[in-house]
Amino acid sequence: MAIRKLPGGGYDVHVKVAGRTRRAQSRRWTRAEALRRELQFREELANQDARSVPESREPTAGPVRGPARSFREYVDAFLRRHSAVHDRPSEHDAKRSIVERHLVPAFGDRRVADVTPADVGDFTAALLSRGLSRKRVNNVLACLSRILRQAGIDGVVGVVPHVPLLQLPPPTHRFLSGPDVDRLVAAARGAYGPMIRVAAHTGLRLGELRALTWDDVDFGTRRLVVRRSAWHDHVGPPKNGRARAVDLSDAATAALEPLAAAGLPGPVFGPGDGTMVTANTAKHYLRRLAQRELGAGCGWHVLRHTFASHLVQRGASLKAVQELLGHGSYAMTLRYAELAPANRAAAVRLLDGGNDG
Predict the structure, then answer these.
(1) Where are the domains of the chain?
(2) Which residues have a Cβ under 8 Å from the Cβ of 316 and sit 6 or more positions away?
(3) 20-26 and 11-17: which strand pairing?
(4) CA distance 279 to 276
(5) Domain spanning 178-345: which CATH class is it, in words?
(6) CATH H-level superfamily of 65-169
(7) Which long-range contacts (CB under 8 A, 24 or more apart) does 343-347 make?
(8) What DSSP string runs through 103-151?
(9) Cα–Cα dist 10/28, whole Å
(10) 129 φ/ψ sector (left φ>0, alpha ψ -120 to 50, else beta)
(11) pLDDT at residue number 5
């Protein structure tokens, strides 16, 4: 493995290309930073390898241990042998969609080993010219990078071309006000009212809401435990593979109690016949409800942002918000820091009138 997570946090990056090795580690690195370091090391080692051969030799035409394979052939094997085995179902489906919509049309009949950095640059420009957002383009490029790196590991590519990502503006997120959430809850029918309330007061993802069972809810301690997440009909571990506990507010507890008293079989927010509500049904319902009640559509992830944003605005620490949301890295939670300028000002005021010794 080129990237290894360190016990206690951080990552170790170990890259070997054509007999040359680069290695570094830091407990401060996120996975995204570790991936950037890996790509940087591969590019540096590839440049060293290129300088050691005649100039007429293309860097990507180095020795390939496997037979010549088209991109189309290799990527089909990649999806079956690597993505389907190691990725979460949602991640595997996302990669398959990117492969079918973007990568195979662009590179399908070419040899994997013939893809050059210039080709990657042209491909990036073509995606942007088609009107794809920079974030979407980065998702496609990240998938391409993952495939090419695996091709290097498998010996199909001699030197893996660098796939640079686009610079993105600071992320923004929409969240609802407390009265807006109240309006949605009041207008919703059936289990959707409690589901909306719990989403806005716990930050659970849609897949986690769909897979939530009564075994996960403890009214005695006023807490629920997120142990599972659903993707279509598949139920597996939550994102990042770790269970997490979320304390229940008064409003979330009050929303759940009538559902518990009804004693219907199946998941907490299921239709009552023992099955889960489908993701598309839940998405379409909330979007139409918000359009009617608020004048603009709304997704379930907006309710997750609402939970985090309201906590930060009320003075909750970003570390506590990270744990409640189940973010894999602190960097993901930092997007909410701008909502707490009063917290920063209060921190600086600790210096006023103090004794510095």
Answers:
(1) 1-57, 65-169, 178-345
(2) none
(3) antiparallel
(4) 9
(5) mainly alpha
(6) Tyrosine recombinase, N-terminal domain (1.10.150.130)
(7) 343/312, 343/315
(8) IHHHHTTSBGGG--HHHHHHHHHHHHHTT--HHHHHHHHHHHHHHHHHH
(9) 5
(10) alpha
(11) 81
Nearest CA among 124, 70, 81, 83 for reference residue 102: 124
Q: Which of 149, 188, 137 is nearest to 43 (CA)?
A: 149
Q: Which residues are catalytic?
A: 205, 239, 301, 304, 327, 336
pLDDT digits (tens, 9 = 90+) for 266-292: 899 999 889 999 999 999 999 999 999
**What confidence tens digit (pLDDT) does each residue in 118-160 have?**
999 999 999 999 999 999 999 999 999 999 999 999 888 888 9
| Dihedral sign (CA 123, 129, 133, 134) | positive
Place of tokens 């590839």: 46
Q: Could you tell me the maximum CA-CA distance found in the chain, to the nearest angstrom? A: 77
φ, ψ of residue 260 to 5 degrees: the values are -65, -40
Query: pLDDT for 14-28, tens place per residue?
Result: 877 666 787 888 877
Structure tokens at 154: 């498998």
Which of 66-80, 227-241, 276-290 tops mean pLDDT?
276-290
Please state, in angstroms and rounded to a whole number, the distance separating the CA atoms of residues 248 and 301: 19
**What is d(CA 217, CA 20) in angstroms, rounded to the nearest whole number?**
53
Paired sense of beta strands 229-231 and 223-226, if any: unpaired
